[in-house]
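Query protein
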Amino acid sequence: MSWRIVVISSSAKLDYQLGFLVVRKDKTTKIYLNEISVLMLESTAISLTAYLVNELIKRKIKVIFCDEKRNPSGEVIPYYGSHDASAKIRTQMVWDGSIKEKVWTKIVGEKIRKQKEFLQELKRDEAF
């Protein structure tokens, strides 16, 4: 089970070795990939191997890249989140228009509800 969020905030070289993320700085550190849920790269002075990126994708580990100001600028996530993703997509593609409309209405309604809850937590006038 993955539970770690690994943040690399300074110059480093990252690669893969026998199921581990290897972080080479002044000192070499190894982190078991199956424990990682997110890898955040805060520095633009980090290099990583394509093999490592592929292994991170296979294990569904989100990789977040940051810009020179340490603000998130992009991410790498796998195309397929589960073994039956293609089957789910094919099923949804043949849904009747009314079903798609109902699902879309539910999604938008839930987003609006969550935004309202958040604004209420902040005690903003827009929530009322």
